[in-house]
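Quick log. Single chain, no ligands specified.
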Amino acid sequence: MQYENVNEKTGGRRTIRGACPHDCPDTCALVVTVEDGRAVKVAGAEDHPTTNGFLCTKVNRYLERTYSPQRVLFPMKRVGEKGKGIFERISWDEALDTIATKFAEIAADDPQAIQPYSYAGTMGLVQGESMDRRFFHKLGASLLDRTICATAGAAGYKVTIGASVGADPERFNDARLILIWGSNTLTSNVHLWPRILEAKRKGAKIIAIDPYLSLTAEKCDQHIAPLPGTDGALALAMMNVIISEGLVDRDYVERYTLGFELLRERVLDYPPSRVAAMTGLGEDVIVTLAREYASTMPSVIRLNYGMQRHFGGGMAVRTVACLPALTGAWRDPAGGILLSTSGTFGINTAALQRPDLIWNNPRTVNMSAIGDALLGSHRSVRYETVDGRSRIIEELTPLSPPIRALYVYNSNPVAVAPDSGKVIEGFKREDLFTVVHEIFQTDTADYADILLPATTQLEQTDIHKAYGHLYLLYNNRAIDPIGEAKPNSEVFRLLAERMGFDDPCFRESDEDIARSAISGDHPHLQGISFDELKERGWVRLNLPQTFAPFAEGNFYTPSGKCEFFSETLAHQGADPLPAYIPPKESVASAPELAAKYPLAIISPPAHNFLNSSFANLPSFIHAEKEPRLDIHPEDAADREIRDGDRVRIFNDRGAFTARAKVTENARPGVVVALSVWWKKLTSDGTNANDVTSQRLTDLGSAATFYDALVEVDRI
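-> predicted structure:
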């Protein structure tokens, strides 16, 4: 097949190969149609096996984002009070000189007082994790622990499987049983859904495990709704049944796992009769699920990050990840478990980020506790062993030096970070110099001292891996930047020049950086031509078409086996075996708190938003209408709340308001606030993160968004 050489045509009508930059497993291949320099259509590539010619509801309207009249088009400086969002236009020279002068002044005292803050506003390797990292490494700034989404699950999975490698999504259609665990596939992984439907047409059973009856759960054969944060207990009870009833694949366990006998002893503590009370499920539901899972082959689990956003989230993912090895589900290409494919790619991260530029052993600040950090405290978790038992210790210690400068890009922490009250208090500090590089004037941008205009994906060059399929993608720039917008890479080049950084890496082009990303000797990258990738837009990794990564063991763990017992965890002082670590805030674990705030709250993504991306555009606001709280009829009746009432949701950290939807989609004892709304676009300037906590997870030190208790009152 021939692909258009995007460098040949410069006028008239042309199509350009690109990639979706957003935080979604699907990482779609795009085809952008340009007429006389203006993008007129963005479509999914029909030849890409995952994208398959269609896009999600958000990216399908990407031109509304690119050509929105809300775009920040010029550099600006603050002229009003922090948080009011009042700016005046300045030149790029003035903006860059101001930033460089301020950074140099602070760095002369201690460069660790300068803090970068970014996440997945773009998932591109060039615009998301290359020149920016080089700049801050050379500067000596504090490092950022990027934990807000996935690190708990990644850590738990890694100590069990060894790397973020799992079942091939393209084989899901051959499975006979699919567990969709902690994932709303139709909202956050829509291109997997056709393969799940094909499996269903061929006779597979589809089960959703989720505290909330999501769009996806509605369409499954069965919905199992455990209480938030109890997934680990459910998995242990399943193992109890599988082992006690002799449903284990003994051959696979003996050849390819480590620690089975210890696991057998551990799960004796989790009989279904006990776990039923923990999870709020019927004992028969647990037993039937375990039997079906162990006796139906091939079986595959689509595990997602929703179920790891509580205090014991890392261990919960680890525990679920043990199941396929116990039953031998890994033997089949359509079996096993999929959390992420990102570890399959073998990207040359060192060439991208250049950690060798670090010269001062800087501290690391956790982004999930940015509120505490801006107010002078460092939040962390660690393990210690007392009387032979592992304990998790949460610590809050002084942060020295204090953060004096903050550079925010690819993120909107005022809207998305937990415990918003403290985040805003920190951003309001008059002695904090804040730079925000953004496409729109977000909640966070309103607190900037310098606001810089950023490009959208159509205006920049990038290379992408995925975490929901096995294809590299290249994003060719389709149009010139609008206004005076610049991509991240270019801004950091210009800042590096002003700071006097003369290392050759700061002069590399975006294409040079993209080449370096796949320059390593990883076997999955062998034979991949950069020029073909750039022209075609996507290339499959060097893997067999029938990819069953652990059919014969060869896990990426130190032992090469699926580790039911983990020496890595033992050395950390953590429990080396799968265990149940309950939420910090639940009726069972915190009865005194629950007496004041008896309802658990979760805040999964709204269908038309992607975190806070797209949440400012009229089409998507019109679709979502207003902030909503789903509440079960029993809980609503207890509070005299009727469908459509305005309600206040609150705890000791803060409060937000929403429109009540009385529905059995929320299970009793749990309320659901589909998120994330920009604060400035709500009626009272709040959102669900006003009640979430900065507490960190057991493994991976990630955010605990779904570990919170609230009360709800009718307004």
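The first strand starts at residue 13 and ends at 19.
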